[in-house]
């Protein structure tokens, strides 16, 4: 169980808020004043990149780095690269040929504003830009940055996030999918990039090998808890808070944790995973107050 | 003017053929036996990656490296990364929301076989895979590989190929575009990745700085000549050789070099650019027989 004073909890909240603020300042100015004839690609990319969101992945990278090194501002480009990857995946996921969503974070989706062609290219541009950012960071920060880039790009790829999206698309045409397929889908689609954010931060912070292994397990469980909570909110959440239509998966006969286990079992599962996450963080060689608070907040969130 | 014996020309052809063969062996086995539930993404990616094509970009990288170092087999992964980027751009370009093409290299386009959702993801997966390949190569080959990766990823991005594609999409809604816009579009859409292939090869081969600068100019002119030749073939070429429908740009009222200058002027322009390319290659510190032959062949090609 977590023993934490009110003051500590408040400090943790401030830290997370600061991470979020810093990453958003970086992202909002990233494409500013860029482009000539191609200006529209920066406008479309910026639109989705700065539409809001929890910024979980970049915050996790920064907090994980912060366990071992001071001044997490130094790794903001790497944190931003992850958010670019996450954002591109949302733009492509929302396309009519994929999830066909009109609303994302309470605003029209990218293709609803810029058309499908530009939205496809904006997604491509964000994935490509994440590559440029990671390569430039690696040129300045050597091998540990390159290793972190490897973790991130593999997590985003066909064996990671994209692999999960493929199974997601395939599952829509099936009446039911196996428990193994469902777990695979979520571990890959949501979990891999969350896990990679944590490990990349630790590698950039030159964490001891044992800690990286613990954080790897922590990342898997956190990613799964995060996805189950998302599925729960999709059933019981409020549209105005979520900024997207709820029960969408159900309407589309999509398999998720709720349709597989029922809501009560999911709530227990989510709680158990969160406890296991805290347990793992307690085994690190350093104190992980901020990461613990973030873990609790992800479970308690309403959107 | 090029002075070359028949024997030299034959040797050059063999070299180019060998490069092509080696890159195709690498690409055809790259995704083999990969995947579990996500197997379809590898099937779809492989389909377009191994559908044929001239392999100009990887061959250029290998020949450019070959100017300075022996055993161009060593840089095959980097050459493959470029072909993955080129292939992803074709898959996305062919989508109904973009060029809406049913035929590519004489075969059904990716989305015609796998559907739009999987085709979008196959494109994403190939771009992402190129990133993984370049990062792994850089981990094994140090800074020069990372610098070459930077050149390639910037050429593929919003300031490069994607930027050109955006202007291409925008030009479709206009009645006419300016000469500057047309040049920008082609320099970026086709030219940047061709230029990057050449420069990346030279950097990997540790070419002297002066040579890299000459090859930069060579790359710009070659990319432009290549695109003008493509536009010419689009009007006068044979469907069975091109493997795609011709005069498509004209039907769609698209601006290209032919609609801008007329076919005769384009043929002169193409010839002039090729001569200038050879002139530049003559200024290198090393002999560039193979690159010269390839340059001539690109001008003389019928598809």
UniProtKB/TrEMBL annotation, chains A, B:
One of its GO terms (biological process) is terpenoid biosynthetic process. Its cofactor is Mg(2+). GO terms for molecular function: (2E,6E)-farnesyl diphosphate synthase activity; metal ion binding. GO terms for cellular component: cytoplasm. Its EC number is 2.5.1.10. It catalyses: isopentenyl diphosphate + (2E)-geranyl diphosphate = (2E,6E)-farnesyl diphosphate + diphosphate. CDD domains: Trans_IPPS_HT. Keywords: Isoprene biosynthesis, Magnesium, Metal-binding, Transferase. It is an enzyme of class 2 (transferase). Belongs to the FPP/GGPP synthase family. NCBIfam families: FPPsyn. PANTHER family: FARNESYL DIPHOSPHATE SYNTHASE. This is Farnesyl diphosphate synthase. It comes from Clostridium vincentii.
């Amino acid at each position: 169980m977590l023993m934490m004073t009110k003051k500590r909890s408040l400090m943790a909240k401030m830290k997370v808020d600061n991470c979020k603020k810093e990453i958003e300042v970086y992202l909002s100015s990233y494409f500013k004043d860029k482009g000539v004839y191609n200006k529209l690609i920066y406008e479309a990319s910026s639109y989705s990149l700065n539409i809001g969101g929890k910024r979980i992945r970049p915050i996790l990278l920064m907090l994980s780095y912060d366990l071992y090194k001071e001044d997490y501002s130094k790794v903001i480009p790497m944190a931003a690269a992850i958010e670019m990857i996450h954002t591109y995946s949302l733009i492509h996921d929302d396309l009519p040929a994929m999830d066909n969503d009109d609303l994302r974070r309470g605003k029209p989706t990218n293709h609803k504003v810029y058309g499908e062609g530009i939205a496809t290219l904006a997604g491509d541009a964000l994935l490509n830009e994440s590559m440029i950012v990671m390569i430039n960071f690696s040129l300045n920060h050597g091998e540990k940055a390159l290793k972190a880039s490897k973790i991130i790009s593999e997590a985003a790829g066909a064996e990671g996030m994209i692999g999960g999206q493929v199974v997601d698309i395939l599952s829509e045409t099936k009446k039911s999918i196996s428990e193994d397929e469902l777990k695979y889908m979520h571990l890959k689609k949501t979990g891999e990039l969350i896990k990679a954010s944590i490990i990349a931060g630790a590698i950039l912070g030159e964490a001891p090998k044992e800690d990286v292994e613990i954080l790897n397990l922590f990342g898997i469980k956190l990613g799964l808890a995060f996805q189950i909570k998302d599925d729960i909110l999709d059933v019981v959440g409020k549209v105005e808070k979520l900024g997207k239509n709820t029960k969408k998966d159900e309407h589309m006969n999509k398999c998720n944790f709720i349709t597989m286990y029922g809501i009560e079992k999911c709530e227990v599962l989510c709680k158990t995973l969160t406890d296991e996450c805290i347990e793992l963080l307690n085994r690190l060689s350093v104190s992980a107050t901020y990461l613990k608070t973030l873990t609790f907040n992800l479970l308690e969130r309403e959107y």
